Amino acid sequence: MKIPEDVIEQIRSQVNIVDVVSQYVQLKQSGKNLFGLCPFHEERTPSFSVTEDKQIFHCFSCGRGGNVFKFIMEIENLSFPEAVKKVAEMEHLDVDAKYFADAAPATKESSELKQLIDLNEQAVKLYHHILMNTKIGQPALDYLHKRGMTDETIVTYQLGYAPSQRLVKPFFDQRQVDYQLLRKSGLFSEGQDGSLRDRFVDRVMYPIRNANGQTVGFSGRLLSTDSDMPKYLNSPETELFNKRKILFNLDFARPNIRSKQPALLFEGFMDVITAFQAGIKSGIASMGTSLTEQQIYDIQRITREVIVCYDGDAPGQKAIKRAIDAFKETNHQLDLKVVSIPDGMDPDEFIRNRGGDKFQALLQNAQSPIDFELNFLKKQSNLQSEDGQAAYIAAALKLVATVSSGISRDLYLNRLAEEFSIDKEVLKQQLAPMIRRTATQRPVISAPVAPAQAVNQTPRPSDKVAVAQMQLLNRMLHNHDVWLKVQGTPGFAFVDEQYQMLYLLAEGYFAKFDDYNVATFSNMITEDSLQSLLIDIEMMNLPQEPSPMEIDNDLDVIMRKAPVESELKQKQAELNQAAKIGDVDKQRQLMVDILKLEQQKRTKEQA
Description:
TOPRIM_dom, 5-stranded mixed β-sheet, DNA-directed RNA polymerase activity, DNA_primase_DnaG, single chain, 5-stranded antiparallel β-sheet, DNA Primase, Chain A, DNA binding, DNA primase DNAg catalytic core, N-terminal domain
């Protein structure tokens, strides 16, 4: 059943696109619009815009744009009916389920991905059932309870147990799941003969979800202590699971981060889960790998505040240093801080032994990256010897030189001078050339795009005909008098097919609606290229009211000059065809025709 247009519009009209987009992108008001980093491509300067009064989004860099349904379709790879359903669910709107019964995936590729996600979701339920409701799962449940985990937390994270008896393959065989789909799921190991067997055996299972809350893989913690198998085993790299792109718990943490809590970057998922149970719910973790550029970009897209909370032992401190370096390499614009867990403990252990309140106190006293690096450097140095002290001071000055604030640099110099009883002026003399070198090496970071600048960046066609079409259609949609004037112009038609298609769709729209609303009109457009063109037209920076001369000029360009353009394109196509078949006489005649048309075009442009 097709979703009725009035139901679609009812849902759209009850939803504020800002509320939906803000769950994926950190937006900041700048003039009339809100701006953020585009979720569809990597960028350093925000060019992704949301216009609240028009209820549309638009990226001035990659060109994507549309209403709230289009945004959800793009970011979650959904079909239009699926996106309508998702938006209704996100906003807790009561819509009859019969309208979504036939919601089909957007593409064949996304259909297979959905099947793979479904396999993982079924495996989650099976592992969880074994853990919570069977005797073979009891040892794993006892292990989690000993780790301080409550049943509520176990249910929230849908933790499970993969027993020694391989049950997952028979479970799916019983349901006659396609062999190739099972191979791609990451749930099985494949023998040389092509046979599949459960990949996870005797392991506590931690489902791994993507940013949209869909299970894309697992991490299994070995329950036996006398095995030579690895303690932790992750799903292999699949079409769904790429650990370099995944941030564990991002789907749970994002609403809390949006409520102005800093993102807490942990090293492992047990740290995240224990913190969550203690009421600290903005924790995320990379998947046992060094922090990647993609992960940093995903963090920066949703927040400006990050606290790194890695283990307090020596390997954990080195990991913090690597994380700081990774953030530096991306030229991030984050308020970055670091927590050092005392007594070599990891966050999970600290929270279980000393409580969430004490951990919150650590977060309140988080230090800057430069303070951490100076302390880290000190631990690596031999301060008992004069050579060691000199080496430490030289290295410390290099770090201080990277600090952009002159006041902060001065405070660090005071600290060094006092700690080592050195004349501050001597330190200043050594620091000065380092600051100059750092300034020349420091990359220039562009300022955020302001609304006025952004509007001027709207992609606009270069030739007069395309500009006239774009401008005229904008006026027609927003001004009924212009619409009537153009409709009453004998023989009028847009030159390019895309503009003519939008015009015809607009005729259908105005047959149903009296007032123009771009977000509502967008629902009637199924082609991506037409949706993008509509948003480009909508984002044009035009005076509020058109002058009669402007409309006449646009009509003149389209109706008087455009036919020459069309004929030129036709002749060029014929020339290419004649060249392919080797018709020399035809080519000569067409070249003469093209030269005449080019002359006509120049004459009309000068008129």
